[in-house]
């Protein structure tokens, strides 16, 4: 008992003196700072019974004497690539849900004039991080970045880093117990050591006014919470060099006119080099400027209505049967979206890696990002709500300088209830605190055919909170056609822009069959299904966009059919081997003519 009590005292002391740093306020634009990757082969120990923490393997202690022994060793054992999921690296880990320990050493030359941050692009799903035998913090959420200030924790020379990763699904998690994609686990994105000066530019948000075409707002936070520090923002191509001082919180705010500004658009994705500098730090990146708003049932980009020619994809490279994580992966995914003629990608169903976000912006593709509030979430659980808010903060803080980001999605196919409405309303409010320029939407699968009006309608008070309402409806797949597609009427959220964020059906590439038989799983059936849905969309008066589900076949433990699916959701317009199905050409033609 005494030992346990002492343990608690020690734990409280470490919390107080800041050793337990926890995941901190995110640095803006880490790829624009001085960094070194910790990517590569890491040593791993698979720990299904979670013995590693109990036996403190993260201390990696040396043998004490001849009588001593250890029942583990990181070096010389199994190794996995970082970044990557573990499921695609070892056959025995294909379905694994549990704990895997990752560990590696890294050398540092301590420099007292700088801060050192340990930055993770994402770890799925939760993790605890240990440096030189001490727990320095933890993180939950498989799709957003986090970092630790390790300046005072590193030692000159060799440091030992251990990460305890666990991907077990739980009822209070986001996503929760079941979801239609693979439960990949692992250190799935870049790991970096980020160097900053002692006093550094922590974060900034530089964006065009929501409505004015030539008025830029900037807010910057320095690490030193003190007034009078000079900050400079330069956009050389616009001949802008704006100097401003911080307030007592170390925050500097300014706005300035930008004559001859060329606003970003899919046709001309213009980006400007922006440099932010303080007395000790300077950071640069390319930023675009555009106006985005809703007028009636139309979405306006800059000064004209724009139809969202959307498509979705999961963060997965089907041929590798694993998570996407690199710049090359981003090129592979987005070039197919561009080829289809899309001007919007819905990054389903979670924030995807920063390479995808930045490349989409360069290619002129708008983005819809969401955190994985997917169907059954524990909306009554205050802890789950806190997690959702934090995930939202991490997503918005990482991407709010990306002008291609057009939509923040707050939910996918959630059932109306008081708890769900309160939970999602709090998310919408939280988002508005961080960013008021983007459109907030959510995807619903609730519309039902009203026998009186013969139209699909939806009754959900939560839509009042949204700028744009989105509908997932699988006419011709999960739902039989109630009449000829040209006669199917919709009357959902009549006063708001409506996006069909999911529609489609399955086909096994290369399988031909009767285009009227759903269970044929044929390309002909899928092709006709797409033609029928496009026909139906002519009746949707407030249609502001469509986004077929989905660009690529993707892995899902839901999909059991032994010959048509084999653990793959086959709604892709492109097969898991990269071949375009007949329906791809239907969408290509539609977007070309739109
Ligand atoms: C839902 C859900 C998707 C899922 C799709 C399907 O609408 O949003 O995540 O993959 O249906 O059933 O294929």
TrEMBL record:
Positions of the Glycoside hydrolase family 2 catalytic domain: 293-544
Residue ranges constituting the Glycoside hydrolase family 2 immunoglobulin-like beta-sandwich domain according to the UniProt record: 199-290
GO molecular function, one term: carbohydrate binding
Presence of the UniProt keyword Signal in the record: yes
Residues of the signal peptide: 1-23
GO biological process: carbohydrate metabolic process; glucuronoside catabolic process
Domain annotation Glycosyl hydrolases family 2 sugar binding: ranges: 67-197
EC assignment: 3.2.1.31
Principal EC category: hydrolase
Keywords, in A-Z order: Glycosidase, Hydrolase, Signal
Keyword Hydrolase carried by entry: yes
Coiled-coil stretches: none
Gene3D superfamilies documented for this protein: Galactose-binding domain-like, Glycosidases, Immunoglobulins
Record family assignment: Belongs to the glycosyl hydrolase 2 family.
Protein name, per record: Beta-glucuronidase
Biological source species: Bacteroides cellulosilyticus CL02T12C19
High-level lineage: Bacteria, Pseudomonadati, Bacteroidota, Bacteroidia, Bacteroidales
